[in-house]
């Protein structure tokens, strides 16, 4: 049996176990509901233990996926010769020569490079002293970003080399019934615009000289994963809650009002149904829910008018949990369900646009950490994000 099939079977077993625990949790709740009372101390202890089991299984599924990807990478490294090799697939818009020169420079530095390498790198020299990364690196970085950043997987992501103004129709205009040969009534559509800038996100990491000299050390994968996780965490926080000052404007602040909850720290089934229908029908087909984990715990206990739980757990690998038939995105950066917070988002997240500048830049720092026998790698990217159509994304705000 192949390793891929074994991985899928193990993941499926975990998901089935997860579904069974959720069913047991619901049985505990049903007993208390039937008696029209809250959970007693024993029931509450049992319920919380099962909640902990659910969180543990979720982590195991994520770790299994990461381990599978890591083992695939290691298998590839074992097949490589024990000499430093720059992959010929290191493509770049400046040509293969530039891609090869870039990875040579990252591993060995530019001081030891010959004139051919230096001439190739000059093509992609950035104004701040770094070198523009090849497309293969950017692809790996984006994959690492999406492992963390939930919003990037649903948002409208574009690349731009300058400030982008996106026209948005703010008023459609109207059509009127007109008598035969009657005068037409003028009604023009009105347009606004959303301007996407480029905010700078930067980081530095250090690698030992010995590790860089190791033929089996994959510089590209290490830096892409390391930077991807750092950029991903910072981006997600800004894409969710950013205030637009030196960073993107978050989806929470850019969304439009849907429902105000009656409670400061509670949410009802009816309020979620109201939020669902506050979104115009054309946007519902691609809509998802977004909330943090503590809010998800509250909502998982809710039932509809037929005494059925409105939260349906995903039963197959890659399938998300569903709420009122729409996927749930659990995002750590979302505000908690506490006084005045916009705790739940429901909408088509493609109405949030992320504008990446096309050039991700990296610079090798030879001297800064030389005292400790380390080489620094400095990288930065420029990006922005804004809601381009507020009517397509609604929020629930706590009382």
List the helices and strands and how they pair.
Blueprint lengths: L2 H32 L6 H38 L17 H13 L6 H8 L8 E2 L2 H14 L7 E5 L3 E8 L18 E7 L2 E10 H5 L5 H23 L9 H4 L1 E5 L8 H10 L2 H4 L3 E4 L1 H7 L11 E2 L9 E2 L2 E5 L11 E6 L4 E6 L3 E5 L8 E14 L5 E5 L2
Parallel strand pairs: 2-12, 6-15, 7-10
Antiparallel strand pairs: 1-13, 3-4, 5-14, 7-11, 8-9, 9-10, 11-15, 12-14, 13-14
Structure, described:
- The protein is flat.
- The longest helix is centred in the N-terminal third of the chain and has 38 residues, at 41-78.
- It starts with a helix and ends with a strand.
- The chain is built from 11 helices and 15 strands.
- The chain has helices at 3-34, 41-78, 96-108, 115-122, 135-148, 209-213, 219-241, 251-254, 269-278, 281-284, 293-299, and strands at residues 131-132, 156-160, 164-171, 190-196, 199-208, 256-260, 288-291, 311-312, 322-323, 326-330, 342-347, 352-357, 361-365, 374-387, 393-397.
Strand content: 15-25%
* CATH class assignment of the domain at 130-175 and 194-399: Alpha Beta
| Strands in their spatial order, largest beta sheet | 6-15-11-7-10-9-8
Largest beta-sheet characterization: 7 strands, mixed
* Helicity range: 25-40%
Label the overall shape: flat
Order of helices and strands: HHHHEHEEEEHHHEHHEHEEEEEEEE
Features:
22% strand, 7-stranded mixed β-sheet, alpha+beta, single chain, phage-related protein like fold, 6-stranded mixed β-sheet, flat, 40% helix, 11 helices, 15 strands, 399 residues
């Amino acid at each position: 049996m192949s390793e891929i099939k074994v991985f899928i079977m193990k993941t499926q077993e975990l998901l089935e176990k997860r579904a069974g625990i959720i069913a047991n949790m619901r049985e505990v709740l049903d007993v208390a509901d039937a008696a029209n009372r809250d959970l007693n101390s024993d029931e509450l202890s049992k319920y919380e233990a099962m909640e902990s089991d659910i969180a543990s299984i979720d982590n195991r599924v994520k770790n299994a996926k990461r381990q599978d990807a890591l083992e695939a990478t290691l298998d590839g490294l074992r097949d490589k010769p024990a000499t430093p090799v720059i992959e010929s697939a290191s493509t770049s818009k400046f040509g293969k020569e530039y891609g090869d020169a870039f990875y040579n420079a990252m591993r060995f530095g530019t001081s030891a490079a010959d004139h051919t390498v230096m001439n190739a790198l000059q093509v992609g020299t950035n104004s701040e002293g770094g070198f523009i990364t090849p497309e293969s690196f950017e692809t790996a970085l984006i994959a690492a970003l999406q492992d963390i950043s939930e919003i990037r997987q649903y948002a409208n992501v574009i690349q731009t080399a300058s400030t982008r103004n996106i026209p948005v129709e703010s008023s459609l205009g109207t059509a009127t019934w007109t008598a035969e040969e009657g005068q037409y009534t003028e009604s023009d559509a009105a347009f606004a615009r959303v301007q996407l800038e480029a905010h700078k996100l930067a980081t530095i990491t250090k690698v030992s000289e010995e590790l860089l000299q190791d033929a089996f050390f994959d510089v590209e994968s290490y830096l892409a994963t390391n930077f991807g996780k750092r950029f991903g965490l910072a981006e997600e926080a800004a894409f969710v809650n950013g205030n637009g000052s030196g960073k993107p404007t978050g989806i929470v602040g850019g969304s439009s009002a849907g429902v105000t909850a009656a409670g400061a720290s509670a949410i009802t089934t009816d309020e979620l149904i109201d939020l669902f229908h506050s979104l115009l029908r054309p946007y519902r087909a691609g809509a998802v829910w977004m909330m943090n984990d503590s809010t998800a715990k509250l909502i998982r206990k809710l039932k509809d008018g037929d005494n059925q739980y409105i939260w349906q757990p995903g039963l197959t690998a890659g399938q998300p949990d569903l709420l009122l038939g729409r996927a749930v995105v659990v995002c750590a950066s979302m505000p908690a369900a506490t006084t005045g917070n916009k705790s739940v988002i429901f909408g088509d997240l493609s109405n949030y646009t992320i504008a990446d500048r096309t050039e991700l830049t990296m610079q090798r720092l030879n001297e800064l950490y030389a005292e400790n026998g380390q080489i620094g790698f400095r990288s930065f990217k420029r990006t922005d994000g804004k809601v381009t159509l507020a009517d397509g994304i609604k929020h629930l705000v706590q009382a």
